[in-house]
Automatic annotation (TrEMBL):
InterPro entries recorded: Hexapep (IPR001451), Hexapeptide_acetyltransf (IPR051159), Trimer_LpxA-like_sf (IPR011004)
Domain of life: Bacteria
Organism (species): Geoanaerobacter pelophilus
This protein's name: Acetyltransferase
Length: 162
């Protein structure tokens, strides 16, 4: 009981403290979220408070302002094992601001999720993903981020229509 309360307090604290590369990821790791190296978590990002251990974030991932990541979809008392599924965000992914990622979703390596997207199904590696309903928009041939650096012009030039 005390562990779950502490997890929730750490999650709320991680939403507002400074340190997108340092303190925020560290607090989420303390909660049980598996987080790789060089991960940026913006302010006001909600990462599931009930099942943080079901979330895995790879190296060099950027998560934009006010994103929400759910690893469960149920209300009230449910038997263990129902209504939950992990969320995997693979390396070099970029999640734009105000995105919602639902349980059971994998965001493929090097993919970019457009701001405001609701992701209800897995995103293939190396695609630009968004709009309502969210779907692949283009094939990415040059990553948006590489080694912690953003190269927007090369990224846009390298987009190939699906």
């Amino acid at each position: 009981m005390l562990g779950k309360v502490l997890q929730r307090i750490l999650g709320k604290l991680a939403m507002v403290v400074p340190g997108g590369f340092s303190l925020r990821p560290w607090l989420h790791r303390m909660r049980g979220v598996r987080i790789g190296k060089n991960v940026w978590i913006s302010q006001l990002v909600y990462i599931d408070e009930i099942h943080p251990e079901q979330i895995s974030i790879g190296d060099n991932v950027t998560i934009g302002l006010r994103c929400t990541i759910f690893a469960h979809f149920y209300l009230g008392d449910r038997p263990l094992g129902t209504g939950k599924g992990g969320v995997v965000i693979e390396k070099d992914a970029f999640i734009g601001p105000n995105c919602t990622i639902l349980n059971g979703v994998t965001i493929g390596a090097g993919s970019v999720v457009v701001a405001g997207s609701v992701v209800t199904k897995s995103v293939p590696p190396g695609v630009l993903f968004g709009h309502t309903p969210a779907s692949p928009l283009a094939r990415i041939t040059h990553p948006l981020t590489s080694g912690g650096q953003v190269d927007y012009d090369r990224f846009v030039f390298g987009l190939k229509k699906l």
